[in-house]
Amino acid sequence: MQVLSLTSPGTEQLEADEAMVLAHEANDFLADSLKNYPTRFAGFSALPTATPDKAAKELERMVRQHGFKGAVINGHNRGRYLDDRFFWPILECAQALNLPIYLHPTQPPRPVIEASYAGFSPIVMEMLSGAGWGWHIETAIHVLHLVLRGVFDQYPRLQIVIGHMGEGLPFMLQRLDVMPMAMTKLNRPISAYLRENVHYTFSGFNFTPTFLNLLLQVGADRIMFSADYPYASMEEARRFLDHLPVSSADRERIAHENAESLLGISRETTT
């Protein structure tokens, strides 16, 4: 079974009315497609994040009426991150539904691109600010905003999914605790939120050293297989999964058991 979603850049950079129309149309199109292959495909809802109350209603509609397994949000909304209380109705809804939000990368805000990624040829600047570096740092910063703003203290059961073996966060996980609880005023160390409120997928990062770092930092129960298809090869992703240096039990967890648990997918529905 594959979980499908509207691809990046999604709705997040659109005007509110345009975002609502696109999200509704994309979700209904996906729902119709899922009906034809209910044991092979599931869906993540696109959301008009510019209008959080409507986004929450759209998420609830797709979950309750069409069995969607959560939502995908493509990063910031015109420079505003989800830790802004403006967006908290979406987070509250996701927790109430007991389903995750997949936080997918997007380009950094324009001022960040101009400050950190300009001065190169157009193609180098595009790749450096995107798939070569900026996407991943941008998503990691977004997750840290959620942690440091106290989102997971407010919504302790909320689960976020990020790709690309953790967008660099596992490498820095222990270092982040240089900011102690006395400083952050949070209920737990930063590393605890990254181990308890975040799940991590492959997303085309078929790199064994990167995987081993993630495994050592968060454990097999927090890692889920994904292929980033159609942008990355399904065959390569499957070969990488098959040759992971882990036990058979951990391979099963990573391959499907963790996703089944997080997304509420029963084994019977996939056979």
Give the amount of beta strand, in percent.
Answer: 5-15%
CATH architecture: Alpha-Beta Barrel
Radius of gyration from the alpha-carbon trace, in angstroms:
18 Å
Which fold name corresponds to the CATH topology? Answer: TIM Barrel
H/E element sequence: EHEEHEHEHHHHEHHHEHEHH
Assign a percent range to the helix content. Answer: 40-55%
Spans with pLDDT under 50 lasting ≥5 residues? none
Which outline best applies? globular
Strand line-up in the sheet with most strands: 3-4-5-6-7-8
How far apart the termini lie comes to 9 Å
For the secondary structure, the number of strands is 8
Name of the CATH superfamily: Metal-dependent hydrolases
Describe this structure in words.
The protein is of the alpha/beta class. The chain has a single domain (2-270), classed as TIM Barrel. The protein is built from 13 helices and 8 strands. A 6-stranded parallel beta sheet has the order 3-4-5-6-7-8. The protein has a two-stranded parallel ribbon with strand order 1-2. Helix 1 (16-36) runs parallel beside helix 2. The N and C termini lie close together (9 Å). The model has no long low-confidence stretch (mean pLDDT 96).
Concise description?
It contains 13 helices and 8 strands. By secondary structure, the chain is α/β, with parallel strands linked by helices. It has a single domain, classed as TIM Barrel.
Properties at a glance:
single chain; alpha/beta; TIM Barrel; two-stranded parallel ribbon; 13 helices
